[in-house]
Specification:
There is one protein chain. This protein is α+β, with helices and mostly antiparallel strands and about 55 residues long. It has one domain. The chain is about 50% helix and about 20% strand. It is built from two helices and two strands. A two-stranded antiparallel ribbon has the order 1-2. β1 and β2 form a beta hairpin. The termini are far apart. This is LCN-type CS-alpha/beta domain-containing protein. Keywords: Signal.
Length: about 55
């Protein structure tokens, strides 16, 4: 019972990420791809995939 709130919060965060932007895993992959760059950004493409911009 005490983990119910945590699980519901986790589900809400994952749903929000899938609707409104890149997931944490996608951000992690962008950070690895842009390792030598100071600034990077992950964004959703129209086809449902994501892409990284390394600056």
């Amino acid at each position: 019972m005490k983990y119910t709130l945590f699980i519901l919060l986790l589900i809400a965060v994952l749903l929000a990420e899938s609707v409104y932007g890149c997931t944490q895993f996608q951000n992690f992959k962008c950070a690895g791809k842009c390792f030598f760059n100071r600034i990077w950004q992950c964004y959703d493409r129209v086809d449902g995939d994501y892409d990284c911009i390394c600056i």
